[in-house]
Amino acid sequence: MSYNYLSKICLFKINFKVEAIPKRYKEKSMTKSSLSVSRYINVNAGKIVLAFLLSLVTVMSFMATFPSAEDKQKETYDHKTSHPRWGIRSINATKAWNTTKGSEEVVVAVIDSGIEYSLSSIKDNMWVNEKEIPGDGMDNDENGYVDDVHGWDFWDDDTCAVNGSSINYHGTFVAGIIAATPDETTGIAGVAPGVRLMDLRVLDNQGQLYTTDWSKLVDAINYAIDNGADIINLSIYSTLTPPDFVHESVKQAIESGVLIVGIPGNGGEKVQYFGQWEEILTVGAVDREGSAWNYSNHGSSVDLVGPGVDVLSLTPEGKVESRSGTSFAAAHVAGTAALVLSIQPDLSVSELTEILQESAKDLLEPGYDPKTGYGLVDAEKAIALAQRFRR
């Protein structure tokens, strides 16, 4: 399996009209600060066709972080041949619903590529900034953001993700796994359909964040902290070491009582940032048989696993599709954490983490292992353990 990366390459000319064609480069991971790329030059008709190869070109603006690149895609979901909701069933979310489907007081911030919140399964589950008057062009709550009703688009620097440039599917897909309203016709259901989603866009329409944009990520984390998020779903990973100020913002979130659920990355290799940081609850992916996904990165930083292979959710167009990636495993854990907080809202980050780990289903050898961590998250058992929790 290969993954796609998009680099920005400028057009150039050699005497006559010649253009270099930007293309998507397929590799498992990018571990250097420059990419080896090939440029093919096409000459107009009437001139000799020339193929000219330049290797080892340093890309001046390279991609630093990206969501689960690239999550395996199937055709649009067919309920007659597929297995609806295997993800939420495997973690016993439907059984947990006997106790709670989530509280609207619990807010999960999705720091990603933006959420298409007009979709019927998502629109009623969006967080609403009640201190803001929609559309009046004023910063009513004086938090520095005008008309931030459901969050903020830090990529376009405007009120919401759907107002500016087009959005990548990824954020909507993640949001659907966390909190979509159950739909018996399509098989779609979020783990915690009663909680609220805060939309914080930091990725472009290719699902990428660049080294010049670290501040966007920090601003999104700070927004989540300042505006009442309980959990941050951060289904993004970086092959480069982030600046210290990014790590400091993560630490600040934890100190403020905000759980951050992250991913190890895809490639079947070592855990990438941000999953390397001990503050992050890092989630790998398993398939429906409970086997570790071959492309789920592994190592001592992996805390838990969740369903991440051929799981169902929504695209911004409202289609139901199945995709694979650690991003979507993390979303199952974020939803489970939200269910737990719905019945025990005063849990600290460490207490919440401990409950999720202790209630997980061991998958490999007894105890911790670097591929599946403490095991597969179990919403029913986590709820039961939280109900018995005493300080």
Q: What is the straight-line distance between the termini?
A: 47 Å
Radius of gyration: 21 Å
CATH-defined architecture of the largest domain: 3-Layer(aba) Sandwich
Which stretches of 5+ consecutive residues score pLDDT under 50?
1-70, 73-82
Envelope shape: globular
User: Quaternary state, please?
Assistant: single chain
CATH class annotation of the largest domain: Alpha Beta
The CATH topology of the largest domain: Rossmann fold
Mean pLDDT: 82
Count the E strands: 17
Residue share in helices? 10-25%
State the domain count: 2
- CATH homolog superfamily of the largest domain: Peptidase S8/S53 domain
Report the β-strand fraction as a percent range. Answer: 15-25%
SS element count, helices: 8
- Helix-strand makeup class: alpha/beta
Describe what this molecule looks like in 3D.
By secondary structure, the protein is α/β, with parallel strands linked by helices. It is 21% helix and 19% strand. Helix 6 packs parallel to helix 8 (379-388) and helix 7 (349-358) packs across helix 8. The protein is globular and about 55 Å long. The termini are far apart.
What is the element layout, followed by pairings?
Elements: E1 3-6, E2 18-20, E3 24-27, E4 41-43, E5 63-67, E6 72-76, H1 86-90, H2 93-96, E7 107-112, E8 151-153, H3 169-179, E9 196-201, E10 209-210, H4 214-226, E11 231-234, E12 236-238, H5 244-255, E13 259-262, E14 281-286, E15 302-307, E16 311-314, E17 320-324, H6 326-343, H7 349-358, H8 379-388
Helix pairs in contact: 3-6, 4-5, 6-8, 7-8
